[in-house]
Amino acid sequence: MVFGLKHQLHIKAVWLSDEKVCWINTLKLPFEEEIVCSDDVDRVVDAIVKMEIRGAPALGVAAALTVYAYANRVSKDVRDRVSFLNIVDESIDKLWNTRPTARNLFWSLNRMRRVLRNSIENGFSIEETVSKLREEALNILNEDIEANVKIGEFGAELVPDGATILTHCNAGALATAGYGTALGVIRAAWYSGKRIRVIATETRPVLQGARLTVWELMKEGIPVTLVTDNTVGLLFRKGLIDLVIVGADRITREGYVVNKIGTFMIATIANRFNKPFYVAAPTSTIDLNSTINDIVIEERSGDEVRKIGDKLITLSNVKVLNYAFDITDPDLVTAIVTEKGVVYKPFSENLARIVNR
């Protein structure tokens, strides 16, 4: 490994404590580090919808932990096995309907649902079912951390010493169970001794770059400069960026990358100036069953654009179109860094090969 384990979990987004799912409320960052813990599925659903918890891997981990925590809570009061199983199954449905784009959410919930179905088929007791749900949820959490560390190791090899890296949105520890995908690559490069610098976009309208990425990097002493989203083109023209590393919420089997709105524009500019554009994501983000025609792009509240925080910055009744994600074409992507290795074109062949490895 290129760094010590002490660097692995400086920051956690979601975890299990006292049999409750806990998370750092990213809406309060960078000014307040509020920790919330709950075993109430409706509270977690609200946290996901409002983006207290955000980032595709973090959503998957949080959902799995919530299914377990809620099942454990329900098991104390509901002693009828069929009723218990139905209640837990309904909790999976609630979590399923929170955010439509992030692949990891559905991947994780499918795993938890398989555990539940297996319990039904094998006649496991309520206690046995709860135990198996706990085991699977913790497996999902630990697998995410391990994947992020490996992504960091593979990705760090692509980063030249002295490079300036552009990243968009937040694909760090706060978007995962810990360590991060795009920021995992940056962390691994930094801890290996490479003299890197990071340029972070503010990432309108929710400002994940300004609030979260900057907070993470400054907390660990990694040099970072914040820029407005519309500065990116000039930075490339002035030769101030050597490569781009971003995360992903979904990657189709053809290699289309769904990520935070604005990613496609950055990839297009990077291609224009012949700079590498890397995507860092676990294989759980790769959806071999979907094509570009299957992608659902989430539309969010217009108030995210009308306001910064609680303050209006435009007329309160102006019409707003607020897409949360966009789609980057495969030809604009230099490579996709996964926990199983770096994937190059043709993605339609090589993504399937690495997922099934």
From TrEMBL:
One of its GO terms (biological process) is L-methionine salvage from methylthioadenosine. Pfam families: IF-2B. It comes from Staphylothermus marinus. The keyword Amino-acid biosynthesis applies. GO terms for molecular function: S-methyl-5-thioribose-1-phosphate isomerase activity. Substrate binds at R54, G55, A56, R99, Q208, N259, K260. Keywords: Amino-acid biosynthesis, Isomerase, Methionine biosynthesis. The record marks C169 as: Transition state stabilizer. It catalyses: 5-(methylsulfanyl)-alpha-D-ribose 1-phosphate = 5-(methylsulfanyl)-D-ribulose 1-phosphate. Its EC number is 5.3.1.23. The keyword Isomerase applies. InterPro entries: IF-2B-related (IPR000649), IF-M1Pi (IPR005251), IF_2B-like_C (IPR042529), Initiation_fac_2B_a/b/d (IPR011559), M1Pi_N (IPR027363), NagB/RpiA_transferase-like (IPR037171). Catalyzes the interconversion of methylthioribose-1-phosphate (MTR-1-P) into methylthioribulose-1-phosphate (MTRu-1-P). Belongs to the EIF-2B alpha/beta/delta subunits family. MtnA subfamily. This is Putative methylthioribose-1-phosphate isomerase. The active site is at D249 (proton donor). The lineage of its organism: Archaea, Thermoproteota, Thermoprotei, Desulfurococcales, Desulfurococcaceae.
